[in-house]
Write a structure and sequence with these properties.
45% helix; 8-stranded parallel beta barrel; 311 residues; single chain; TIM Barrel
């Protein structure tokens, strides 16, 4: 953790005054969405986009299914966000079940649509526990994908980072080496997998510094409203859920209003503690819902910077 006078003063303030009083709004935010499958889901997504857009996010990103299963929906969603919401939008792109030629075709289509930012991921095969197998004519890993994309167009590229180690990595050292290869290949920043305790990110930040990695790494924030769903997500990516969190959600399955209040309280305190530790960039996994991400941003002092866009 950063041991500076300002950080110590901030930590003391967090203890001595109301947690969210007087914050200057000096945070930067970004938001992740997934492409909608139906018209109703598109309406919900667009409501979320229009709610969050006035916060002037640094960028928003749209996910991409294994094997390109959501390729067209991702493209259409990103293109609409750029053209109608006027937000800087990033498209996810993976290596799964794709040749280099197919990835070139997708990347060129993104560039033509005005996309200048790619979130480049190795990707998973789509079934839990199934090991990643590169396409014989494709990229073997995310570092190769980053290098390939840089040859196609001068994209800004974000990659993934894992505060608790990727499940396929031998250890944290190997995981950090892999992250460094992705950054050396041309990535601008990394976005972390979600985690549930601030100390997890602070330890990871120290490990990054010790490994000589100085590129920005944005903490990925997953506001938990559905604990069973969060547990499923965590099992897939190796994120640890603390026992105390499970205890706080116990017994709330039939009380959605109370569950939402508990979720908001936990997520707000979590982000406030990250802020006290010097974090100023927050990447929210929104699950296409705006309420918690907007509320947390508001509590951290962020206010609308641009006018609302048309729904």
């Amino acid at each position: 953790m950063i041991a500076t006078y300002d950080a110590l003063r901030e930590a003391r303030t967090a203890l001595d005054t109301p947690l969210f009083a007087g914050l200057p709004g000096d945070i930067r935010v970004s938001f992740e969405f997934f492409p909608p499958k139906t018209d109703a889901m598109m309406t919900q997504l667009w409501d979320t986009v229009t709610t969050l857009a006035p916060l002037a996010p640094e960028f928003v990103s749209v996910t991409y299914g294994a094997g390109g299963s959501t390729r067209d929906r991702t493209h259409d969603t990103v293109a609409r966000i750029i053209s109608e919401a006027k937000l800087p939008a990033a498209a996810h792109l993976t290596c799964v079940d794709a040749t280099k030629a197919e990835i070139r075709e997708v990347a060129e289509a993104y560039w033509q649509a005005g996309v200048r930012h790619i979130v480049a991921l190795r990707g998973d095969m789509g079934q839990p526990g199934v090991p990643f197998t590169p396409h014989p004519e494709g990229y073997a890993n995310a570092a190769e994908l980053v290098a390939g994309l840089k040859q196609i167009a001068p994209f800004e590229i974000s990659v993934a980072a894992y505060p608790e180690r990727h499940p396929d990595s031998l250890d944290l050292v190997a995981d950090l080496d892999n992250l460094k290869r992705k950054l050396d290949a041309g990535a601008t920043r990394a976005i972390s997998q979600f985690f549930f305790e601030p100390e997890t990110f602070f330890r990871f930040r120290d490990a990054l510094a010790a490994a000589g990695i100085d590129a920005p790494v944005l903490p990925g924030i997953l506001p938990v409203t559905n604990f069973a769903q969060a547990r499923k997500f965590a099992a897939a990516c190796g994120a640890a859920i603390p026992a105390w969190m499970e205890g706080l959600f116990e017994g709330l399955d039939k009380h959605p209003g109370s569950r939402q209040l508990v979720a908001a309280t936990l997520a707000a305190e979590f982000c406030r503690r990250l802020y006290a530790g010097g974090v100023r960039d927050f990447h929210f996994y929104t699950l296409n819902r705006a309420e918690l991400s907007y509320a947390i941003s508001h509590l951290l002092g962020l206010r609308p910077k641009v006018s609302e866009i048309a729904a």
